[in-house]
Write a structure and sequence with these properties.
Length: about 1200
């Protein structure tokens, strides 16, 4: 072996890499370290309780009692009140609706870790590491002696030379009264230099130092400043010449030492100034000389004490002025936050590009026509209805439409409580639009309608060319005011330099939504010659388009809930937020956070040219109503959004009339506020009218009064199989409307069930209508609906069949992605509820598989942030009832173990590995909530969780390790993520569980690795150690205390370990394990050595910068944990690359041995900087 080694390292020959590799592996396998059984941490804490409590640094040995706690954070929204109707939860009968409402009403549930800021790397410490621009200038003692007199004189004469201020506690100054804790008063102290060079320490009641101080301490009479902890911690006293003392106390040891150092520095200057004055006095002036001698004798009496305090101040000043060693490390100055956890925010409403559209004016050239406005005069027959449909945006590129601005919500309280007034909402003039998927083909389309007066061509003629305006007002329209006819349209391309179109006349051939789409996409925009063929209305529509600022005031959402910025006293117009129809794409979907329950109804087409039931059916109008019963005397619900100028809510809505059209197409949109709980009787009722346009004076008065005639009925039940109907429907029309019409059913063979109904045109589907649901409490997904429906049956008392439930769980894998994201908190809450109530292992495993599927879908769509928000804020463990339910952390751990078995589905196990952080985070939060809510946090650590859970945790760790150590080549991302997630989980287990048990799990983890492993496994192992050792209470976990036998209680009485003995590694488990692993890694290749050294170095930097351990005593105690590092470095000095680590030039060290030179560099086995044997 020795011959082989010398051959590999002979001078002048290149190193054979394969030979070195074989050699390294051989040494590694020979030096495989044995596992050290860790101490029983909880028993040691109990056995050494007296020693720990008597230790002056006992905070370094004990975990704080308030280490973690649960908290409830009030849900913050944009609205002035809750979006959930007052009695919605009481009215809800469906389990899915109930759980959705609970989700939107619940507050956030957090687990707060008091010292979490210290659980990351040194760059994430709360006290930020200051960037060191340059090293301070070193001042040596020989220079200090030469310049001492000059410096003292100059510093003493500078006005404001030394200043300091801060809060201190001032004790009672009367020495006749004993000083107690209660006698201390908090005062603001300000150290100031007077004009004669003397110093005063003034104190005030607050920080306003411009006022007269409450008192002053003249430091000219002070003879010394010493520490005094007899009465209060961090206290010090100022001894005066008249034998009196001033007792002060700081908030921390660091502040106390700063005050003592500063005050002693001033005393030193005063002393040296007095000595200088004594030496330079005039010997011929006897009286002045005697005074100086008298003063000197006064100083001489306190000289020993002052000299001692001055010397201590000098030592502290030098130590504080020194730069911490690790400031010089280049890694300490790098802004690397790659290991930092992402910032997690609670769920909130998010919008796309927000645009403000404001209508300023609508005017026509017709002299007698006046634009509609809220304060304008009453207009004549030519009056225009300018309503909220002007705010319609069609996004055709993605086939997405942003609907018209909404007015109010039937079941929401603002209007009823007087927050908003109905009159302020009748004439909307501006709206806010949100565009989630911007693209070039976004148009703002305005439709203008006119009161029905007959033929649109005849009525529009006065607006299109010059005519006698006196003839316009002769048409009687008072009885047809509610019937409207399409008049003109306008469109604006928002992406092409705000291209503005004129007002085009619709005519009878340009009236439907389909026509608008064809118009825009038939190259009318691109070809002006085609646009010139369209008839144009002589008028002007003034519109302003602008961006929306974050603090935009006085607007309401689509359900008419005012924002927090809403001011009811303002006279500014109300702005209406538009409801966007977000595309059904998972990546554009956000989890619902508010209650919203709207149904949009679109009558499309009516084919009435072949009907024979009615004599006249040409000017056809549709009346839409929403009813909850089919009884004859049942009134429609007042839940349809009204049009401008009318009530906020109405019982019916009317579509625009097309003159002399038997097969009319409609473009109207009717918006309905749905009840919280729907049932089978809820339906839409369509009533058809023939509207008479005969304005002739002939005929009787009775005949002229008949304006509309009913020409048919149709209805559409809202629920089908328990879900809201949203697809396009073709429904028949009846000539009559008998009571109980919803119960009519065709039985075949000419038979039917229910009342007699006279069908128009033989019962053919003559009406085409579509609906669109925008609801956060109803789902359109059949699989999700069936799952919740079955859960409701079992909760209501029905016997739960395992096979049946498994079937519904498996069907959830086919759930639509956007539905899964939209209802994410509600779905996960229900799945965890089923998990805790499962009585069969198969059910629990399938629940976990569904959760894995949901988590994987979120990650694949780039929506990991939603999952993190859920775990941190929304997840809340079910109340624990030992006889009925189980805990999430125990059941989830068991299911994870089953899925990780080699015989399980490898696709599911790979997803579990890849996204394991979610499951471990749920385990952590469930454990924390379980301990707090069941008052188990007060128990001993080994009594908090049952033995079954300890076994489950140990099993999941053991099952996880083969996946990490064997799949790192085939599935590197999954194994890497699982390794990191396991480390985070183990680290947090120190906060909740038996710490000795957690040490054993770390041992189980380490036992799966061996020297000579591939580099990737070394990276995994040291990443694990890095995360675990960054625990906020890493120092107490290592118990930096004497473990000697007998009555040895102090470090000065103990001979410290400078080597990694088994006893040291057992008593100080984590640091011993880390040092042993670093020592093993130093026998590996250069890359492995760098990884190990980096982890150890960063941990040492963290200790140095941790403000909890800033004092010298704390740092000295920490240093005792790393004493074996010296022996480790000495043994491996030839394998540590000093030259590459140091940021400053150093002399290249060399070691001469057997005539060969080996540079002190990692992996540098060649000959560099040769040194002769005589000169070495």
């Amino acid at each position: 072996m020795r011959k082989f080694t010398l051959g590999a390292l002979s001078p002048g020959e290149g190193l054979n890499f394969s030979m070195l590799q074989c050699l390294t592996y051989l040494f590694a396998f020979q030096a495989k370290p044995k596992l050290i059984e860790p101490l029983d941490y909880e028993n040691v804490i109990v056995q050494k309780k007296t020693q720990i409590l008597n230790d002056c640094l006992r905070e370094m040995l004990l975990f704080p009692y308030d280490d973690f706690q649960t908290a409830i954070l009030r849900r913050q929204g944009r609205y002035i009140c809750s979006t959930v109707p007052v009695k919605a939860e009481e009215e809800a009968e469906s389990l899915f609706v109930t759980e959705c409402i609970k989700t939107y009403n619940s507050d956030w549930h957090l687990v707060n870790y008091k010292y979490e800021d210290y659980s990351g790397e040194f760059r994430q410490l709360p006290n930020k590491v200051a960037k060191l621009d340059k090293l301070p200038v070193h001042v040596y003692e020989v220079d200090e002696e030469a310049d001492k007199d000059e410096d003292a004189a100059s510093l003493g004469s500078q006005k404001g030379g030394i200043t300091k201020h801060g809060w201190l506690y001032k004790g009672n100054m009367n020495t006749a009264i004993s000083v107690t804790m209660r006698s201390f008063k908090r005062r603001f102290f300000h150290l100031i230099q007077l004009g004669d060079g003397s110093y005063n320490l003034n104190f005030y009641k607050d920080e306003k130092i411009s006022k007269e101080p409450k008192g002053s301490i003249f430091l000219d009479s002070c003879m010394g400043v010493v520490q005094n902890n007899k009465v209060r911690r961090f206290a010090f006293e100022l001894k005066m010449q008249d034998k009196s003392t001033y007792l002060l106390a700081a908030d921390s040891e660091v502040e106390m030492e700063e005050w003592i150092t500063t005050l002693n520095k001033i005393l030193q200057l005063n002393f040296e100034a007095a000595m200088q004055e004594k030496r330079n006095g005039d010997s011929h002036e006897d009286d002045e000389q005697s005074k100086l001698e008298g003063s000197g004798s006064g100083l001489d009496s306190y000289l020993p004490e002052l000299v001692k305090s001055t010397r201590e101040a000098e030592i502290k000043l030098k130590s504080e002025s020194r730069v911490k060693l690790f400031y010089l490390d280049p890694d300490a100055q790098k802004l690397d936050f790659s290991s930092a956890e992402p910032e997690v925010k609670p769920f909130e409403e998010k919008f796309g590009k927000r645009i403000l559209v404001k209508c300023n004016d609508l005017s026509f050239n017709l002299q007698c026509c006046v634009a509609e406005n809220e304060e304008g005069p009453t207009t004549n027959e030519g009056k225009m209805l300018f309503y909220s449909d002007i705010f319609n945006i069609f996004m055709y590129f993605f086939s997405v439409r942003v609907s018209s601005s909404s007015l109010t919500c039937l079941q929401s309280p603002p209007v009823l409580q007087g927050i908003l007034h109905e009159a302020a909402m009748q004439y909307p003039k501006q709206g806010i639009f949100s565009v989630t998927c911007p693209h070039p083909d976004i148009f703002l389309v305005a439709r203008i309608e006119k009161v029905l007066q007959g033929s649109i061509t005849h009525c529009a003629e006065p607006y299109m060319k010059s005519s006698d305006s006196s003839k316009v007002g002769k048409l009687g329209i008072s009885s047809r005011w509610k019937w409207r006819i399409p008049f003109a349209f306008f469109f604006l391309n928002l992406s092409i330099a705000l291209f503005l179109s004129p007002l085009f006349f619709t005519g009878n051939n340009l009236m439907s939504v389909l026509t608008y789409k064809c118009l825009i996409f038939s190259s009318f925009v691109c070809r002006p010659e085609k646009m010139a063929k369209l008839p144009v209305i002589l008028g002007n529509l003034d519109i302003t388009i602008d961006n929306v600022s974050s603090d935009f005031p006085n607007y309401v959402n689509s359900s008419y809930i005012p924002m927090k910025q809403f001011d009811t006293c303002m006279k500014a117009p109300i702005t209406f937020e538009v409801e966007e129809f977000v595309p059904c794409i998972p990546k554009h979907t956000q989890p619902y956070t508010i209650y919203n329950n709207h149904l949009y109804v679109y009558p499309k087409y009516l084919k009435y040219d072949s009907q024979k039931s009615f004599a006249k059916a040409r000017n056809i109008a549709i009346c839409i109503e929403f009813k909850d019963s089919d009884e004859e005397d049942c009134q429609p619900l007042k839940c349809i959004y009204g049009r401008p100028g009318g009530p906020v809510f109405t019982r019916s809505a009317f579509a625009a009339v097309l003159h002399h059209q038997q097969n009319p197409e409609f473009y109207d949109e009717i918006k309905i506020e749905l009840p919280t709980q729907l049932h089978e009787k809820h339906h839409l009722l369509f009533t058809f009218f023939h509207v008479s346009c005969d304005n002739s004076s002939k005929g009787s008065t009775k005949k002229k009064d008949v304006v509309e005639t009913q020409v048919g009925y149709s209805w559409l039940p809202l629920l089908k199989d328990g879900r809201v109907v949203t697809s396009e429907q073709h429904v028949p029309i009846s000539a009559n409307l008998p009571s109980g019409y919803l119960g009519y059913q065709e039985l075949g063979m000419g038979r039917h069930y229910g009342p007699e109904i006279k069908w128009v045109d033989g019962g053919k589907p003559l009406l085409k209508v579509s609906t669109h649901l925008v609801s956060t409490v109803y789902t359109q997904d059949q699989h999700l609906h069936n799952f919740f429906q079955y859960c409701q049956k079992t909760e209501s008392g029905a016997q739960a069949l395992g096979n049946e439930l498994v079937k519904y769980l498996k069907s959830l894998h086919a759930m639509e992605g956007h539905v899964m994201i939209a209802f994410l908190p509600t779905i996960l809450n229900q799945l965890f509820r089923v998990l805790t109530r499962a009585t069969q292992e198969e059910v629990a495993v399938n629940v976990t598989r569904v959760i894995i599927h949901v988590v994987a879908q979120c990650h694949e769509e780039g929506l990991e942030s939603h999952l993190r928000s859920y775990v941190k804020y929304a997840y809340k463990a079910e109340p624990y009832v030992a006889s009925e339910y189980k805990t999430v952390h125990e059941e989830l751990t068991k299911s994870m173990t089953t899925i990780l078995k080699p015989s399980a589905d490898f696709l599911t196990s790979n997803k579990l590995l890849k996204y394991s952080w979610f499951f471990f985070d749920v385990l952590i939060k469930s454990m924390a909530q379980h301990l707090i809510e069941n008052s188990k946090v007060k128990l001993l650590r080994n009594q908090r969780f049952p033995a079954s859970y300890h076994h489950a945790v140990e099993t999941v760790v053991n099952m996880l390790m083969p996946h990490i150590t064997q799949k790192f080549r085939d599935n590197p991302e999954a194994s890497k993520n699982a390794n990191h997630s396991l480390a985070v989980f183990i680290k947090r287990c120190f906060t909740f569980m038996d710490r000795g048990f957690v040490f054993k799990q770390i041992n189980n983890y380490i036992s799966c690795f061996a020297p000579g492993d591939p580099k990737t496994l070394f990276e995994y192992k040291f990443e694990f150690l890095r995360v675990v050792c960054n625990h906020e209470h890493y120092i107490p976990l290592n118990l930096p205390m004497p473990f000697g036998k007998g009555r040895i209680q102090r470090y000065q009485d103990l001979q410290l370990d400078y080597s990694l003995t088994d006893e040291f590694c057992r008593n100080h488990f984590l640091v011993g394990l880390l040092l042993r692993e670093v020592g093993t890694a130093l026998q590996e290749f250069r890359e492995v050595r760098l990884i190990a050294i980096s982890v150890l170095k960063n941990l040492l930097i963290k200790h140095s910068f941790d403000d909890r351990y800033a004092s010298r005593s704390h740092q000295a105690r920490i240093a005792t944990l790393y004493l074996p590092l010296f022996g480790l470095l000495i043994e491996n000095v030839q394998r540590i690359n000093v030259r590459e680590v140091s940021p400053f030039p150093v002399n290249p060290g060399s070691v001469c041995k057997r005539g060969h030179t080996v540079t002190a560099g990692v992996g540098s086995w060649g000959c560099q900087n040769k040194v002769s044997q005589t000169g070495g």
